[in-house]
Design brief:
alpha+beta, Arc Repressor Mutant, subunit A, Beta-Lactamase, Enolase-like, domain 1, 3 domains, HrcA, GAF-like_dom_sf, stress response, Heat-inducible transcription repressor HrcA, transcription
């Protein structure tokens, strides 16, 4: 689709495209030499002055070159950006790595790692078990006289398996009793969190070796439940390697935010209320820590609400990356609906 642009809009478009390409201020001479304009250098300079007065471009230092502001980038993306079709390579990678046979947690992990590998940016995925989960099966398997394997399977097929090291040997009577108590607390398709609460009450009523073993199981279940409700974050180290990070210490604040992501997760949940991709440019997020990065976010499931997001420098290739995040969300949604 051909977009008709005014001369100021075309000049802004050329400035943004060149800036996204090399990150350098764009001079009026470079623009005047562009065949798309066919105007004099004086006309270009006057138009650039007009764009600067309107807040769409700015001078980073005393040179004659200009770079786009957040407002200029927003106008470019909303009106001038033409999204590119997903590459064949990326499409095949999404289909190959994100298969419906994978349990939900592993599917989310695969999606996050794949998106980071393809882009080199940070990927954030909402907690795999954001809506709670049901226990389908729980078992204790003897490995040795003082070692047991705890196995818990939820309704999505995700498996928790942990080796429990006991201070004393566990005889068959104790093992049978503990297993019965675990099934009483967590069996029958109950909610994981409710089962943990019931198990806590049972632990307080027991004593000796039986109580010690139940406490070990309770600790593992509680830890796994906590982890399952944390967002998955991939590629933090990738951000450290970008030229922008090396030149701008403000990006170190982004790393701090990723280490304590509660505020960022709330933001992403709030903006992904429908099935269209969302793009936040720097200060648009309302967080000073994100002033120097962009975020592309997309919801991939409504109930429970789940999102996937890509975080990177402002100089992203938006034309390629927005369709990639959309396609990844679509593939996740398709696989989850097939269950």
């Amino acid at each position: 689709m051909t977009i008709t642009l005014s001369r100021p809009e075309l000049i802004l478009k050329l400035i943004v495209e060149q800036y996204l390409l090399d990150g350098q201020p764009v001079s009026s001479k470079v623009l005047a030499d562009n065949a798309q304009l066919a105007v004099s250098s004086a006309t270009v300079r006057n138009t650039m002055m007009q764009l600067e007065q309107q807040g769409f471009i700015r001078s980073p230092h005393t040179s004659a070159g200009r770079i786009p502001t957040t407002s200029g980038m927003r106008l470019f993306i909303d009106k001038m950006l033409q999204l590119q079709p997903l590459t064949t390579l990326w499409a095949s990678e999404l289909q190959r790595k994100l298969t419906p046979q994978l349990p939900v947690s592993l599917l989310c992990q695969q999606a996050g790692q794949l998106l980071t590998n393809l882009t080199g940016f940070v990927t954030i995925i909402s907690a795999p078990k954001a809506g709670g989960r049901m226990v389908r099966q729980i078992d204790l398997v003897r490995l040795a006289s003082d070692r047991l394997l705890l196995v818990v399977i939820d309704e999505d097929g995700d498996i928790l398996h942990r080796v429990l090291h006991c201070e004393t040997a566990i005889d068959n009577n104790i093992l049978s009793k503990v297993l019965c108590l675990l099934n009483a607390a967590l069996g029958g398709g109950g909610q994981w969190q409710d089962g943990i609460a019931r198990l806590g009450s049972i632990v307080r009523g027991e004593s000796g070796v039986c109580q010690q073993l139940l406490q070990k199981v309770l600790g593992q279940l509680s830890l796994d439940e906590l982890q399952q409700h944390q967002p998955l974050i991939f590629g933090q180290h990738q951000l450290l390697l970008t030229p922008e990070y090396q030149q701008n210490t403000a990006l170190q604040q982004v790393m701090q935010m990723l280490e304590q992501p509660e505020g960022l997760v709330r933001l992403l949940h709030n903006i992904t209320q429908d099935d269209t991709p969302k793009l936040l440019l720097g200060k648009e997020s309302g967080y000073v820590e994100l002033a120097n990065v962009s975020v592309i976010a997309q919801r991939y499931q409504a109930q429970p609400a789940r999102f996937i997001a890509l975080v990177g420098p402002r100089r992203m290739n938006y034309a390629r990356l927005i369709p990639l995040v959309e396609a990844c969300a679509r593939q996740l949604n398709l696989n989850l609906n097939r269950r």
